[in-house]
Design brief:
Largest interface: A-B, 41 and 41 residues
Oligomer: homodimer
CATH class of chain A: Alpha Beta
Number of helices of chain A: 8
Order of helices and strands of chain A: EHHEHEEHEEEHEEEHEEHHEE
CATH topology of chain A: Carbamate kinase
CATH superfamily of chain A: Acetylglutamate kinase-like
CATH architecture of chain A: 3-Layer(aba) Sandwich
Chain lengths: 256, 256
């Protein structure tokens, strides 16, 4: 099978024109088939502020009311997505911008209300991988915004890490998928305050051990749980690395 | 060759949820392959107002400064495009949203400054029809927002009628193309004040005669010039009709 690199890049890289330009140049250097999944970060918050919409956060997570859904649809699927596509086209990469509604790529369901009503947030239910794989085989490079739909006409805001993970799994029957999460840190660290304490490789047994010892904790645990879930579903390797070290071969490699 | 219906719908239909829902339902009924090209109309002006951006018009035409380009990219290629796609998906039409930057579908060049500086407005230079035709042959229904790019990384605002016309011409080698312009009036009228004075069919000779007699004038002349240009490039027929009469077989049919 052919190699496919799926790169997920967060809002911090995207919102700064210089870091974005560097990322896209590095992305160009990656050989073989590829997909870019992006967030939008502060750009959505900035537009909300300009429009006088209050950004509601509960426990560090954005609440997506109807107005905020419009903002993220405009910023992620419109402004950020199409600007990335135009910039990749200028680099002679045949990019195509997509969200989860396009050819029913990612169907999700509105998150049920328990303690917190997250609003128009979608939990991924199903990915239609075949059309996407066909496009990739035609040397098209999908650029995916983290907006999905419920197939009842409702768009839904969806976590970009989850979108990347689900796309990686859906592409695993078609390609040898290598999933890169671009992160602020060089990767998974033995000591979160020491960037030189990078763990170069983690297998599940080591992950369980690091968790037990309290070396890996907090937000890194669900990230790694997702990574092992992707590996269990046929993804070849998951790499957690810094955006500006995408080509270095560094970062933490999560493998079976 | 298979039939392809290309429907261009303007901002007035799109900005009202009820007229949009009716249009999409009618669109579903059209048999065979199809493309939808949409504007965004007042929705862009409304967002500009909310953001405190002044809308600059010269001789009835919007000037696209950098901020306005961001607004139309967000509204046309994001909000409007992805909502139409989600609603078509709910109707079980396999829609895919696109702008001209996606797989380099429509390359344009920034309009040169003569008397008026229109800003970031693109005049269409080249359409890549092959990938679009492949998608259509896979039963995908493209939904196209009138944002193009210069292949140097710059997005450009482009007239939606022109986008429809250029796409129709580019599809003519692949399909029997029928191009529908949805319009506020029932079609081309003998008397602009009398909706019952519809001209059902126009050939070029009649058009020249109507122009000479002053029956057809103003903004209708470039519309019909474009229509005859499309016919000269292989489009089978151009229909100017009201959005809510799309299925009636009415309107003005412009034929060779």
């Amino acid at each position: 099978m052919n190699k496919l690199s799926l790169i997920k890049v967060g809002g911090k890289v995207v919102e700064n024109p210089e870091t974005l330009a560097k990322l896209l140049n590095d992305f160009k250097q990656i050989a073989g088939y590829k997909i870019l999944v992006h967030g939008g970060g502060k750009l959505a918050t900035e537009l909300s502020q300009k429009m006088g919409i209050e950004t509601k956060m509960v426990e560090g997570r954005r609440i997506t009311d109807r107005e905020t859904l419009e903002v993220v649809t405009m910023v992620y699927a419109g402004l950020v997505n199409k600007n990335i596509v135009a910039q990749l086209q200028a680099l002679h990469i045949n990019a195509m911008g997509l969200c989860g509604a396009d050819f029913n790529l990612i169907r999700s369901s509105k998150r049920p209300v328990k303690d917190i009503d997250y609003g128009f947030v979608g939990d991924v239910q199903e990915v239609q991988g075949d059309v996407l794989a066909d496009l990739i085989n035609q040397n098209i490079v999908p650029v995916v915004a983290p907006i999905t739909h419920d197939r009842q006409g409702q768009l839904l805001n969806t976590n970009a890490d989850t979108v990347a993970n689900e796309l990686a799994k859906a592409m695993a029957p078609h390609f040898d998928v290598h999933l890169y999460y671009c992160f602020e840190k060089p990767g998974v660290l033995m000591n979160p305050d020491d960037d030189n304490s990078l763990i170069r490789e983690i297998k599940r047994k080591e992950f369980e051990q690091y968790k037990e010892e309290g070396i890996i904790q907090g937000g890194m645990i669900p990230k790694l749980d997702n990574a092992f879930n992707a590996l269990a579903c046929g993804v070849k390797e998951v790499i957690i690395t810094q955006a500006d070290r995408l080509l270095s071969g560094g970062g933490t490699h999560i493998i079976v």
